[in-house]
Write a structure and sequence with these properties.
It holds the Pfam family ADH_Fe_C. InterPro entries: ADH_Fe/GldA, ADH_Fe_C, ADH_Fe_CS, Alcohol_dehydrogenase_Fe. The chain is of the alpha/beta class. Helices cover about 50% and strands about 10% of the residues. The protein has two domains: about 150 residues, Rossmann fold (3-Layer(aba) Sandwich), CATH 3.40.50.1970; about 200 residues, Dehydroquinate synthase-like, alpha domain (Up-down Bundle). It has a six-stranded parallel sheet, sandwiched between helices.
Length: about 375
């Protein structure tokens, strides 16, 4: 079965495997928890000196990184800051950060920001590990968006050709995660809400991805219920730290850390987002706003019965009555996702990001890995409808 073949099922209802990531030692959450959590994790991990990895805007336009610096300096663990990580984590920034890490004589990274600095930190540590042959060093992740990169053992970054590539190792999963909602207050609204849609994307696609165990699917239902309620509330009340904390926890539930004995491919919406994002400069949260609702509608036509059941049952958690038809309920879920995107003011198209229509067959082929598969015509048509 192809990683994106939705016409047959690898059932995880009654058989499967679940384990926590080997690396993750703890997640501490709560408004204002940074000053307690960071020293605790430094001690727990035996870290002596860290390099902060972040983005330029967060470093220059907010005091978030300064707060992290202050805590590290009180513990004499500050090894400097690298703030040249940009969207989609270009390889040039990763290579430069590797050199800065060595010069600082650091033994760990504290990443601050969204998916780009967190994934870039995994890539930095991966390349250092390959270069030295030593163990993979540790990352403490302090996310300020809802993209959930902190819960995975893989990292995506952009190579010299502008293509998204990935590295993966269980040791790359952050060793500790700090969810302090106060540190998210300066996150721009569009970034905050669109990464919230990324979390919605995680939760929905977990319902039909292969090898996802039932407990994780039920957590995805809970995540969806909270995201659909609290994302609009956060837009209306951007300074409400409690709502932001609930959203950070919902993002966590949307992507419960786990390890797989076999590879579990991303769903179609994520796969399309990976191909569209780096090549055309579309933020990952926005790719989810564009791709998720149409992909869910396609599942009503192409998914196997078990996956349809998981998807259709999601509307119960959104307090939407069932029609009695799996296909119709999946289309209702698609409409609800589209409605949430509209409510958040995030409606976007491929036209806005100047994606040439002549590129669509190539995008579909790269997403599916082949141009002669059963879903290829449907995916090309799906992309055509995103303009």
């Amino acid at each position: 079965m192809s990683a994106l073949d939705t016409t047959s099922c690898n059932s995880s209802n009654l058989q499967g495997f679940y384990a926590w990531t080997d690396t993750l030692k703890g997640i501490q959450y709560g408004p204002g928890c940074l000053e307690e959590a960071l020293p605790n994790f430094l001690d727990l991990l035996g870290v002596k000196k860290v390099l902060i990895v972040t983005g330029r805007s967060l470093y220059e336009k907010t005091d978030v990184v300064k707060q992290v610096e202050t805590v590290l300096k009180t513990r004499d663990a500050y090894g400097g800051v690298f703030y040249e990580i940009s969207q989609h984590s270009p390889i040039a920034g990763i290579r430069k950060a590797q050199q800065v890490f060595k010069e600082a004589d650091a033994d760990a990274i504290v990443s601050v920001g969204g998916g780009s600095p967190i994934d870039a930190s995994k890539a930095i540590l991966y390349h250092i590990h390959k270069e030295t042959g030593g163990p993979i060093l540790k990352q403490i992740a302090i996310p300020t968006t809802l993209s959930a990169a902190e819960y995975t053992a893989g990292a995506g970054f952009t190579n010299e050709e502008g293509q998204k590539v990935a590295v993966s190792d269980l040791g790359l999963a952050p060793a500790a995660v700090i969810l302090d909602a106060k540190l998210t207050l300066s996150t721009p609204e569009r970034l905050w809400l669109s990464t919230g849609m990324r979390a919605v994307d995680h939760a929905v696609e977990n319902l039909y991805r292969s090898l996802i165990p039932p407990p994780s699917k039920h957590l995805s239902y809970a995540a969806l219920a909270d995201l659909f309620v609290n994302l609009p509330l956060s837009k209306a009340n951007p300074d409400d730290v409690n709502i932001r904390q609930k959203l950070q926890i919902a993002s966590w539930m949307s992507f419960l850390p786990q390890k797989f004995r076999k590879y579990s491919a991303a769903g179609l919406s994520h796969a399309l987002g990976h191909k569209l994002g780096a090549a055309y400069g579309i933020p990952h949260g926005i790719t989810s706003c564009i791709t998720l609702a149409p992909v869910v509608a396609l599942m009503a036509e192409t998914a196997c019965h078990e996956d349809k059941e998981w998807l259709a049952n999601a509307i119960f958690y959104l307090r939407i009555p069932s029609s009695g038809s799996l296909d119709k309920d999946i289309l209702t879920l698609s409409d609800a996702i589209r409605g949430l995107v509209d409510k958040l003011g995030l409606t976007s198209t491929l036209t806005e990001y100047i994606v040439p229509k002549e590129d669509l067959p190539k995008i579909a082929e790269r997403t599916l890995g082949r141009a002669d598969g059963p879903l290829y015509p449907e995916v090309v048509k799906l992309l055509e409808n995103m303009y």
